[in-house]
Amino acid sequence: MEHMLLLFIFFIPILGLSNGTETEQDFTWHLKKIPQIVRERTFSLDSPKFEAKTKLELNSVCGIECQRKLPVPSLSDLKDLLSYETVFENGTRTLTEVNVLGAVLDPAGNTTTRRSLRKKRQIYGTDSRFSIYDKRFMTNFPFNTAVKVSTGCSGILISPKHVLTAAHCLHNGKDYVKGSKRLRVGLMKTKSRGNGRKRKGAKRSRREVSTAKEDPKVATEQSQQSKGDRKRQRRPGRKQGTSDGMPSFQWTRVKSTHIPKGWFKGVSGDIALDYDYAVLELKRPHKRKYMELGISPTIKMMPGSMIHFSGFDNDRSGQLVYRFCSISDESNDLFYQYCDAEPGSTGSGIYLRLKEPNKKKWKRKIIAVYSGHQWVDINGEQQDYNVAVRITPLKYAQICFWIHGNDGNCTQG
């Protein structure tokens, strides 16, 4: 099964070239000029209540038909939608207003490209997901970029200190969710001293004591994992490698969280999936390989129209789950697809491989954030899709600005 997985991961782009209808040059990362996001002013807001319940499935959001009817955002709208809130680890909150320079407004509006429509669920027919059991894969690129968010979602490493995830994992459109005040990110461990075992009655470290006080959920998970290790130690004749497939995590505190104002209120006057993304700044940098951002191409520019992502689905507790599928529909801001996924994978980074300009090398980049299984309005009826938020030039500019603190490194993407 592992060999099949590798074939899919490394050769899908090549298979897309062999249908005789497109050329190799079609599947290239085309550099685009990025608009500028400029900070105008920042002011303090009241601290959030942090009382909202985490809701990983949204109802009555603006869907395919609704997207077509939305007005084209004006420059004033964009400035408002791309302004953002920042919540810090001490619970304080600020609002930063921005200006947008060099944005090209699309007169066509929120058009959609429709392919064959099929009504399917989160998991349908044969489950096509792959659980990554082997730590040789789990702790190496691209799978090592997947992280766990303590509110029950997934995310992806986009810099040595930043994680990209879904906004609704942290905020329900009205308030921040419980647990987001002391937010933590779990990075899969590459090494564990003493195979993660601890002597009976051994003292807990200061960090573990602090974790138990601040985040009982994470502390419980760590405690259960430690107990499981002791049980495995007692069983004679069992292989040392049985922990493969159940990754252990190094939990890191989040220093600050950025969410676009467009998530709180979109052009339609309601929460907008278009802006269902957030960036978490970690308190301490990691030393792992992360995945770069890319501008989301259209379906026609993707080999086989395929996308890929990995996350921590709730029905496969503790396992890293990888999947790939083709996109069914797209709008300017969203992908509609039927990738097999369950809650827990929400917030995963969706990526694909394209050729680097003027090179023979193929490179993976993040092109969207998995928003999850959502009910969308189509011709007055609610239908379910698995939806992803595309990284457009404007969103690229904003996320890049959050990473670097200025637009100097964000001129092309």
TrEMBL record:
**What processes in GO biological process is this protein linked to?**
proteolysis
Basic residues bias (residue ranges): 184-206, 229-238
Provide the Gene Ontology terms for cellular component: extracellular region
One Pfam family this sequence matches? Trypsin
Q: Which UniProt keywords apply?
A: Glycoprotein, Hydrolase, Protease, Secreted, Serine protease homolog, Signal
Q: In which residue ranges is the amino acid composition biased (Basic and acidic residues)?
A: 207-218
Start and end of every Peptidase S1 domain? 138-202
Q: Which residues cross the membrane?
A: none
Region Disordered, residue ranges: 184-251
Any idea where this protein resides? Secreted
Bias regions of kind Polar residues — which residues? 242-251
Signal sequence, start to end: 1-20
* InterPro entries, per database record: Glutamyl_endopeptidase, Peptidase_S1_PA, Peptidase_S1_PA_chymotrypsin, Trypsin_dom, TRYPSIN_HIS
Q: Does the keyword Glycosyltransferase apply?
A: no
**PANTHER family, from UniProt?**
INACTIVE SERINE PROTEASE 35, SERINE PROTEASE
The entry's family comment says: Belongs to the peptidase S1 family.
The name under which this protein is listed is Inactive serine protease 35
